[in-house]
UniProtKB/TrEMBL annotation:
Residues 11-124 form the Helitron helicase-like domain. This is Helitron helicase-like domain-containing protein. PANTHER family: ATP-DEPENDENT DNA HELICASE, DNA BINDING PROTEIN-LIKE. InterPro entries: Helitron_helicase-like (IPR025476).
Length: 197
């Protein structure tokens, strides 16, 4: 449409148009979301957990649906759909199944990296009885472990295949397998010049 030829009836050029807050990504929507987040912080205090949920471009559901010669950045619609489905599953575990205990409020912000992969920053506000108060409670909520290769060899192989660099999980696992078992956990870290945890 051309304003000069009279195709529109929006008024004279240069007229100020105010976008409503329902336009996602607009300045009013961002300001309103910020105000909502600050209201949650004012009511519940500081957050108890901060999660970053990232997208895996090599996920099987993404790679199987690419055409030949395509990469995941070529299909942002597919990547976004798979990511949002996985995010819904995570939120279901956190908010409905209460795997970390009861969440009374949460704030989630979606962002896209320059290469086109989405990720989510999430703040979780826990109930008073589920609020982690000690280091041991935080350590019990944050766990990372490898599957037993005898019980589930396929998933163990996938984990090892994706973590082959020296600084990765596989490289550190090889280092720890070489350390004598008589050393305690802190001595193991100092023995191989790994950071003390």
């Amino acid at each position: 449409m051309d304003h000069l030829s009279g195709d529109t009836t929006d008024g004279p050029p240069g007229q100020r148009i105010t976008l409503s807050s329902c336009l996602q990504g607009g300045p009013r929507a961002m300001h309103q979301s910020y105000q909502d987040a600050m209201a949650i912080v004012a009511k519940y205090g500081k957050s108890d957990y901060f999660l970053i949920f990232t997208c895996n471009p090599k996920r099987r559901k993404i790679t199987e649906n690419l055409y030949s010669g395509q990469n995941s950045p070529d299909r942002p619609d597919l990547v976004s759909r798979v990511f949002h489905r996985k995010l819904e599953v995570l939120q279901d575990y956190l908010l409905k199944k209460h795997i970390l205990d009861r969440v009374v409020a949460h704030v989630a912000v979606m962002e896209w990296q320059k290469r086109g992969l989405p990720h989510c920053h999430m703040l979780l506000f826990m109930s008073a009885d589920g609020n982690p108060r000690s280091v041991e409670q935080v350590d019990s909520a944050i766990q990372a472990f490898l599957l037993d290769p005898n019980e589930n060899n396929r998933l163990f192989d996938i984990t090892m295949r994706r973590n082959r660099s020296p600084g990765s999980l596989y490289g550190q696992l090889k280092v720890f397998q070489e350390i004598p078992e008589r050393l305690s956990g802190n001595d193991q870290c100092r023995c191989r010049r790994l950071p003390k945890i």
